[in-house]
Amino acid sequence: MKLEYPKNGKFGEFGGRFIPETLVPAVEELEEAYLRFKDDINFRKELDYYLTQYAGRPTPLYFAKNLSEATGGAKIYLKREDLLHGGAHKINNTLGQGLLAKRMKKKRIIAETGAGQHGVATAMACAALGLQSEVYMGYKDTQRQKLNVFRMKLLGSIVHPVKEGTQALKDAINEAIRDWITNVKTTYYLLGSAVGPHPYPVMVRDFQSVIGKEILTQMSEIGKKSPDSVVACVGGGSNAIGTFYPLIDEDTEMFGIEAGGEGIKTDHHSATLAIGSKGILHGMLTYLLQDKEGQISDTHSIAAGLDYPGVGPEHAYLKDINRVKYDTVSDNDAVQAFLLLAKHEGIIPALESSHAVAHAIKIARKMPKSETIVVTLSGRGDKDVEVVEKYLSENVKNKR
Amino acid sequence: MSRIKDKFQELKRKKQKALIAYLVAGYPNEKGTISAVRGLVKGGADIIELGLPFSDPLADGPIIQNASYLSLRKGMNLTKFVNLVKKIRKETQIPLVLMTYANLLYRNGYDKFVSMVKKVGIDGLILADMAVEESKDFLNAAHRNNVDAIFLISPNTSPQRITTIANASSGFLYLVSVFGTTGIQQQFKQYTLEAIKTTKKAINGKIPLGVGFGISTKDQARFILRNGADAIIVGSAFLRLIEKTPQQKIETKIASFAKELKKATILE
Ligand SMILES: Cc1ncc(COP(=O)(O)O)c(C=O)c1O
């Protein structure tokens, strides 16, 4: 079932390369470089060095005993990507692509960011590798993730707030693509999720697959071949595909969790796979939230990193072949899981990751104690404490 | 025969090159688009491109982004676009090209979309994000409905690829003049001229070459045409003019600007 390097970047009918002609030579150059270096011994060595010495891999697979007991059901394990340098899984990808960009002799790096985690991870990798970085971020997101804007600046990156469109992640990607078209010869576009034109979805998946590979090793250390279930949140889908891909041929049930926002019956959610339809955006054919004419919809999530109307093409494929179940968790349930994990385990998860935690709690209740669930805790929640505080005070008001 | 092909042959006889103008349908509103079209026809434009706005115009600069956004906010959609083209077709036989992004066709179904717009008088289609490798369904729909599929190339497109793309194209081939999005350029660089030369050589007279993105003055137009282009495409400059002009003066203002640009296409 594994599609290791799908021809023309097609996962079934999904993926591909729907891009302005100016970018064709750029993605061809990127693909060539990626194929040349992905299994190159020196490249792997250097990446491994940075992943261990700089980013802090491997990350623990932590048995959340208190949470499991409080839930009453399957054993919940947390794959602690939140402990990585920068506080999220994003650094797995930015180190990989940063090293590739260096080999391609590109010195100027651009990136988009939603929650700011990919922007921070880009700024860090670029500082460490001696590259220049500029990050596009929707204006709305710069307001709700202020801490990360300041972090990026501290790390030497230039942050461009994007005031076009919905001022969120999709508009940041649009602006990054426009920059790339304009500076195509000198600039490397360091995309932050498993989305975009081929080869990005495959390449980002490969760099993030370190998550799933470590899960398998760590399961064997506790005497199991693989977990009974894994759960990961899905924005563009990079932490999820990095978790799922190495486990695809295992006997593991997989759950990808999208942002249910204020409910999937409202217009305020980002439940692309749950209720979206097929379409073309940002260089790929995939599921999208769009109207009947093909105009892209506004999305919402309390988690900026999930606030995106598209999804990586491999997830679209895994949904259609029924290998992964995609479900949604509302803003409110995510906040409750955020509070619960903090209280029971002393871990403050990112709001994105809280969606996965909420779903894990839900399914754990229905599973026997002998079974295991692994939740990918994609990031830590320091960036979100203000948003949660505001959410809680407003909701207390509303309830009165 | 297509209206576009006829037009290029007619111009050849007259020893002229083509002025192609781009408008965003529904900007500043439907009436304004009709006034602008009247102005273009009066001013001597040879082909008109009508942009059907898309929510995420990632190949466009600020001027067209803004016009697209406003048009969509006023409710522009495929049905309204079709009605607008119907109205335009009652007044003029000028070749009309629809420019948009791939998703609007994909979502409606390529064939359904193309046959719908062909019926009201669209002669060609340009999709800003349609790479030739992905274009099978689009091309089938274009052929079935006898509509020209106009592809874009760029200054970094290899000669070999230019040939492949030119073979897939009909009507004309669209060379994006600069590394960048649509907008207004102060000055063209040497690489644009080299791209025109490379392209002319690769297509070897098989299809007319239009050059667009950034052209906003008669002098720039003349410069591009002297270096071998068969058509110049002007968009943002017209939209900028519409932006600055009160509704009742759109027709005359656009007509005089088109007339000015058209001068550059008449060979001495
Ligand atoms: C902590 C965290 N988790 C998840 C995501 C969602 O991205 P993806 O679906 O690519 O993993 C983000 C994105 O910003 C994030 O910051």
Which terms would index this structure?
heterodimer, A: 400 residues, alpha/beta, six-stranded mixed sheet, four-stranded parallel sheet, 16 helices, 14 strands, 18% strand, B: 268 residues, TIM Barrel, nine-stranded parallel sheet, 9 strands, 50% helix, 14% strand, globular, binds pyridoxal-5'-phosphate
Give a nutshell description of this structure.
With 400 residues, chain A is of the alpha/beta class. Chain A has helices at 24-37, 41-55, 65-71, 90-103, 117-129, 139-144, 146-154, 169-182, 200-208, 210-221, 238-244, 272-275, 313-320, 331-345, 351-364, 385-399; strands spanning 10-11, 14-15, 61-63, 75-80, 108-113, 132-138, 158-162, 187-189, 229-233, 253-261, 277-281, 284-288, 325-330, 372-377.
**Alpha plus pi helix count of chain A:** 16
Number of domains of chain B: 1
Task: Give the low-confidence spans of chain B.
Answer: none
Q: Which structural class should the secondary elements of chain A be placed in?
A: alpha/beta
Query: What is the N-to-C order of secondary-structure elements of chain B (H for helix, E for strand)?
Result: HEHEHHEHHEHEEHEHEHEHH
Structural class of chain B: alpha/beta
